[in-house]
Structure formats: C-alpha cells, structure tokens
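re: ur question from yesterday

yeah so i grabbed the chain u mentioned. its 364 aa long if i counted rite. heres the sequnce exactly as i have it in my notes:
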Amino acid sequence: MIAPAQPMIDIRSVTKRFGDFTAVNDVSLAIGPAEFITLLGPSGCGKTTLLRMLSGFEHPDQGDIRIDGADVTHLAPYRRNVNQVFQSYALFPHLSVWDNIAFGLRMQKVPAEEQRRRIEEVIDLVALRGFEKRKPTQLSGGQRQRVALARAIVPRPSVLLLDEPLSALDAKLRHQMQLELKRLQKHLGMTFVFVTHDQEEALTMSDRIAVFNQGRLEQLGTAADIYHRPRTAFVADFIGEANLVDAELLQRNGNVGRVRLKGGLEIIVPLDQWPEGHAKAVVSIRPEKVHVSKQPIKAENVFSARVEEEVFQGALDRLTLVTDAGTRLHAIVANESALLEAIHEGDQVWCGLHMDDLVIVAAD
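ran it thru and got these structure tokens back, copy pasting raw so excuse formatting
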C-alpha cells in the first residue's frame, strides 16, 4: 500500500522532546482514510508519545499534525474528532454498560432518540446484547474491552486511537479480539491507529506497520513487506525471528555474489540488496526458511549441519544447527510423526537456503 493521496492523518516532521530526551525525532507519516495502521516498537521507542500527540494530550516541539485536512497541532483533545481506547479501558465502575457507552453522546448533547438508536446499533456490533444493565465489575476482560470500544466508536470519530488495548487479556482471548477488532474496523470504515510492542498482533491486524526505534520511524510498509523485506537489522530482528549473520563479500558474479558468513559457511546471495561500496553486511535468514532434511536436497545453497539442540513445540520443532564450517543457525521445521523423517538432537542433516529467502541489510 502506497502513501495515501489525501490522508486522514498527515504527520509532518514532528519532533517531541522531554528535557534532553528526544522521544519522537523528525517523524513524517501519512495515514489514509479507513486504514488500520500499527505503530510498533519496543518500550521507549516513541510510539505512545506520537499517539498522545494525535490525541492532543501532548503537543510537538516541531512539525505539525493534520487530521481530515485540519491543522490540529495545538488543539485541545476535545476539539479533535478523534477518540481513544486505553490499555486500562477507563470505564466508569458505577455506571452500567449502557450508561458507559452513552456517556460521550450525552456530553455532546445528542438527542435522546438518536442516542438510543446509536447505542442499540453499537451494542449489536460489539456483541454485548443482554449485558446492557451490568456494571464493569460483572464483566470479563473481553467484555470490558468491548464496552470501551463501543464507547469510543459510538460518537463516530474520524480516527480511533488504540493504546495497547489488548495487553491485559490472556493469549486465546487476545487472538480472538485481534480478529474482532479488524472485522469491526472494516465494517466501520474508520481510520484505526493501533499502538503495540507485540509483533504478532501487528502482523495479524494491520494494513501497514510503522516500526519505531529510538524515536525514529525505522520502516513503513505492509505486514508482508516488513516481514519479508526488512530494510535494517533492527527491523529484521524485531519482527518475527531471524538469523542475523555477519557476512563478508568474497566474489562478485553478475547479480549474485559469494559471501562468507560468520563461522565460515560460504553461500551465494543476491547483490541487488548489498550496500553499495561495502565489503561487509548482515544476512537475515528467517528460521522457517532454513530447509532441513535427512536426505540431500536441491537448493541454491546446500550444506551439511549437526542438530545441536531440538526444542519440541507441538506442531513445530525449533532446531539449533551447527554447520560443518562452524556457522550457527536456528531453524523451525514441522514436527514429523514418521520416525524416518523426524529430526532429533545429534542428527546430521542436509540444509538448503533459497536466494529469494535471503535479505541483506547494512551492518550497524
């Protein structure tokens, strides 16, 4: 997905400092109408600070922010057509589900009949029918999350901001809510800006992902782009799992080159990604892209290795491999039930790497 021609949110060269600490450093980002975008990164990378500047709880020291064409850089939160769902849900414990959802509409002095119609609609949308009279303490975590979502979307904001809203849920419910959130966003046609440090969450829900590192926007792209074609070692390491192996270019042959990986293994890599003018770089190899077999296999790069460690994970086995040359790699393979095909610790195996699965990033 390319940058939208007429963005719903247009962040232009925004910087935010707290004393000597730069939380957000010269970030520009255009977010389209009806787009689900995730701000992803580790704690302290600037993603929540950027979200707070979108909501109006913080203001940038430099740059400007436009929402739906209007400059909101220094507007108070209540003057922006945005709403936010917080990590803690922030429900009123003394109010019923109905009254929690109605709160924003009453503050806006929406006529009573219109309030009733909108609340009825959103209660069905988030599957809370039958819970209208309950208090938050009588609800499960997932139900409280739905109330917070309903309260945020019922005023029909242009943008919904979500600050790690699923982090308090258990793993199974969290996955269920990820799918429900994406379904809800598609149904509403609303712009969602979602903040998380959970890579799986970002990959599951997002139209695009903005990866942040130390206040800077490290990479922006679709989930597939970010996962399969990371541009930096940080992104390759943070999104999913990756073998990040130092490599030295030994020989060029047209658009491919022979490199020596740390530990001694030599492989062929595509040179179109190799940093210009550099003899060294980092090769990123996803563990699931290391093809492992007890039998010789066909691939551009085939080598022998010993299984140093095997970790059983149900449907998958996680292997630590040491090549004959001494290079260490991690691999993820399907857990085979057939004894002849199953791979175990201590086995000598054949491995293969397809060049299309190798990503070259600049060394730090």
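noticed a couple things. The mean pLDDT is 91. also The chain has eight helices and 20 strands.
anyway ttyl
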